[in-house]
Amino acid sequence: MWQPNRAQWSIIWSIAVLAILVWPPANGRNLITIAVNFLADPANTLPTLPAPLPMSLDDNGDAVTAHDAELAEYYRALDRSPTTRWRMRLKEGTDPLAPTMERQLLVGLIVLGALGVWRINSR
Description:
single chain, mainly alpha, 2 domains
């Protein structure tokens, strides 16, 4: 029975871990993006960009004032320092590619990894 050698195991493990971390779910974000978002702000202290005001509010001055205050706090925190700006962008980050493209790239990587393991085995 065939047993992978050390080089083959390193290829198999690294591709398997990468595929698990980066594989996009049906909806939501992949594991590596969730981890980066959490590590950027583990205590959830940084403000997030507030959603735009809905058109159904009409002339609700209190809602506009509250929204403007949230927006001002967000931009105040954003201008605080380059490190805070970087953390806020990482906290709000999403997957850089479309899920279908991510899946295609990962399947290609897995196939190339299998070919590499097979090639090492033929030596």
